[in-house]
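Hey,
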Amino acid sequence: MKKLVSLLAVALVAAACMPKLPDLPEVVTLKSAELPVVEEDVMWKSDNYNGKPVLVVFMGSWCPWCKKTMPAVVALKEKYGDQVEIVGAFMDATPGPVRDAAKEHGFTVKALYNAGEMAEGLGVQGLPHTMLFDQKHQVVKVWEGYRPDMEEQVTLEIDKLVK
């Protein structure tokens, strides 16, 4: 009996010393977001695309890996047209550098700027950072950094949503 009480006491002390397990992560959603569009005098509003998948690629005009990602994003927009809302969300605070980078690299996808706050709210920590949201604007998949196979990987996930 003494051994059982001692074992129980040791177990209780050990359990009290264990760190608390982290809470389960909440589902990441594309909340009501508004960002200015580079080439237009309008605001892009995520709520305008309720019921439609949204692909957001966070980038910076200065980021060499983001520039390498641009052709894949353009190809995805050409492939899916209006089936999926695809945007480049740039961290730049002003439209000028984004406009210049887009022109230099043939980036014809809707370019947004001043996306820092939105990125922070979605847990973006590096660039490029690609997030696919379903029709309910819940995150489906996240890709961090540059990937030479980005177009193929994103296509696999979008096809699950639109077909």
